[in-house]
């Protein structure tokens, strides 16, 4: 099997040299590849001529969705629900997708209904019926605490701090 790029051919040349015992492994990647390959396979890759090969293989984005389908088939069962809506541009179930819209020349994040609900619940919890009592407790003196005015700092200072 020939190498697809010059970089792969050079890498396999090092793997082949390690397999033959001519050199010690310069990196862990080379050592791992040498341990997992047969000597003949490494030789096939390493003996590829450089003429006509690119320096580095650039992966082209698939025009069809076969590559994405293969990935989703191997995906964890947790993400299987995304497979159905993958080609329909529906990203409502995907936690990694974020939608933006342009307003006043700036991009802003679209806020979903669930995020709005969570924001309202957070606000209720923060400014609920116990918020005023918590505010009072902060200004209340603790047992054995005395506050005095410090002219240098320009504020009251506690002896407990």
Task: For the structure shown, list the relevant keywords.
about 160 residues, mainly alpha, two-stranded antiparallel ribbon
Give a structural overview.
The structure is a single chain. The protein has 161 residues and is mostly helical. The chain has a domain at 1-79. The protein is 42% helix and 10% strand. The chain contains seven helices and four strands. The chain has helices spanning 6-20, 28-36, 39-46, 66-73, 80-84, 113-126, 131-139; strands at 100-103, 106-109, 147-150, 155-158. The protein has a two-stranded antiparallel sheet with strand order 1-2. A two-stranded antiparallel ribbon has the order 3-4. A hairpin with a 4-residue loop joins strand 3 (147-150) and strand 4. Helix 1 crosses helix 2 and helix 1 (6-20) runs antiparallel to helix 3 (39-46).
Dominant shape:
elongated
Q: Segments where pLDDT lies below 50 for 5+ residues?
A: none
Decide which structural class fits the backbone: mainly alpha
Number of helices: 7
Average residue-wise pLDDT = 76
Give a quick account of the main beta sheet: strands, pairing sense, barrel closure.
2 strands, antiparallel
**What value does the Rg take, in angstroms?**
32 Å
């Amino acid at each position: 099997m020939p190498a697809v790029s010059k970089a792969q051919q050079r890498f396999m040349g090092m793997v082949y040299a390690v397999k033959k015992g001519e050199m010690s492994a310069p990196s862990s990647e080379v050592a791992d590849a040498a341990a997992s390959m047969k000597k003949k396979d490494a030789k096939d890759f390493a003996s590829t001529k450089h003429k006509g090969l690119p320096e580095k293989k650039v992966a082209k984005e698939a025009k069809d969705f076969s590559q994405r389908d293969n990935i989703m088939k191997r995906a964890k069962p947790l993400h299987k629900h995304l497979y159905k809506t993958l080609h329909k541009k529906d990203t409502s179930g995907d936690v990694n997708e974020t939608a933006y819209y342009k307003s006043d020349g700036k991009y802003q994040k679209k806020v979903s209904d669930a995020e709005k609900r969570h924001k309202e619940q957070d606000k209720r919890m923060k400014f609920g019926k116990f918020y005023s009592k918590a505010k009072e407790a902060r200004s209340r003196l603790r047992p054995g605490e005395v506050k005095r005015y410090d002219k240098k700092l320009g504020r009251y200072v506690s002896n407990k701090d």
